[in-house]
Fold this sequence. Notes:
Layout: E1 8-11, H1 22-34, E2 38-42, H2 60-72, E3 73-74, E4 78-84, E5 90-96, E6 104-105, E7 110-114, E8 117-121, H3 124-132, H4 153-164, H5 171-174, H6 178-184, E9 188-189, E10 192-193, H7 195-201, H8 204-210, E11 216-221, E12 227-233, H9 240-250, E13 257-262, E14 265-270, H10 274-286, E15 296-300, E16 304-310, H11 331-339, H12 349-359, E17 366-369, E18 373-379, H13 385-398, H14 402-412, E19 417-418, H15 419-425, H16 435-438, E20 447-450, E21 457-460, H17 462-467, H18 481-494, H19 500-507, H20 513-525, E22 529-532, E23 539-542
Parallel strand pairs: 1-2, 11-15
Antiparallel strand pairs: 2-5, 3-6, 4-5, 7-8, 9-10, 11-12, 13-14, 15-16, 16-18, 17-18, 19-21, 20-21, 22-23
Helix pairs in contact: 1-2, 9-10, 10-12, 12-14, 13-14, 18-20
Amino acid sequence: MPLETEEYDQKSLKFLSKKPDWQELAKDCVCFANARGGAIRIGIEDGETQPPDGQTISLHWIERISKRISELTLNVTIAPRIETAANGSQYLHIAISRAPNVASTSDGRYYLRVADACKPVLGDDVLRLINERPTAPWETLTTLQVARHQIDPGKFSAFCDGIRTSDRVKTSVKEKTDTELLDHYFLAQGDWLTNLGILCVGQRSDRARLGTAPVVQFLKYNQQEQKVNKLLWDDFSLSPMELVEVVWMEIPDFRERYELPDGLFRQFLPLYDEGVVRELLVNALVHRPYSQRGDIFLNLFPDRLQIVNPGPLPLGVTPQNVLHSTVRRNENLARIFHDLKLMEREGSGFDQIYEILLSQGRRPPVLKEGSDRVAVTIYRQVLKQEVINLLAICDQQYQLTQREKITLGLLAQQESLSTRELSQQLCLSEGQPLTSWLGQLLDFNLIVQTRQTKGTRYYVNPDLLRSAQVYQRTTLQRIEPHRLKALILEDLRHYPGSSSSEIHRRIAPEIEYMKLYRTIAELAKAQRIRYEGQNRWRRYWLNERSP
């Protein structure tokens, strides 16, 4: 059995106590119903894959759960049953169907399953949930009534060949006839092509009639941000799969390279990595709302590339959790891109972008969401060329995981990062552990940890940096507490009557302000300094009576 995912959750048998938390179970059922459906297994402990030995479930729970969930929810359909695991023990399996209409609790609360968590839907997001979640997905509608035989023979032949040669497709699917593949991938329904079928294998004229088929614009700007070149793909002759290849091949700027010195040799680094650009373009094509008009823009500036996609992020995805969310707005289109090996279906696209950019010594991507668009910016500048060799050496020797490479790359570009700063860079929510991102970096002694409290900081092992000839600017970020106290006392000796912000600005602006503020408080408590005033008007002096 899988661990908790976007479509699966499990609870301990303790839930079936004398007073079950029915509100919590109802909330979880609404989450799955508003997403893609799923299953809840009661009787399996967190982190386990099977129920405890000898566990049995009473039949009366099936009727009781069905009754309570129907009372506490709207538009939620469940099917509870008792299952027997491989060890002979029983657990309660609750299958939740995707709701045809938006589901809610009986007291009017909305929830949505995002990754492995249940998130509340509040305010304007309720309207977004209603608008983005029609009874039938846009992909499966047959609005234009185009007969299934009115396909583009060349596009359909290329699609079938790509499916049959893909190592991501089951043998049983490859053995289907061309007609059966149309139905299998929801390109047709009955006698008609679906919107997805018209988009992927339909005629050019029908694709234009859709009204929301993707149009891509490439705009190049000079140093003064004046437009110097423009390329346009707006004749609807290409399917989304074909657009990825054509856009990459027809923009010559993407094949320009850096020449970096590497000892006696030269290292060539692309201005914009092919894997990164393709992944961003695939994301723009697969995750855009096809019920909304708008062009995809590739804006190339001298120092950066910006890809702008119409529509907001899928509900439940934010710039802060993009590394950990797997919500797909167009499920069937994503499936086609995955099976044709144009994208990863597991939601690892942004992880791959982070890994590639950091391994090339560049900044991670910057994601910004507006009311009607999403913009992703990647920068061409190599911040530290030495980081490229550092990550390559470490990966070759220790076979690092993707998350370990991302974490090591972030730390190699900084002198050090606190737990909070590293969590922010990794888009982790408050309280979410760093364990899976640190992996074995501490065990391999590739990074070093200072302290064990909220003041914990991480930095790359200095011996490793020296061996890879990565030189970082020396700062006071890792200064020891007693030395910081001595700095503060010396500063107050020269500038009595200073505020904490003035002290911070003079001695070490790179140090976290709260770290300095806590140190000042410790000195005041030890009566080594005194203060007058409160809050922002507080000023500090050396205590003349202190030793």
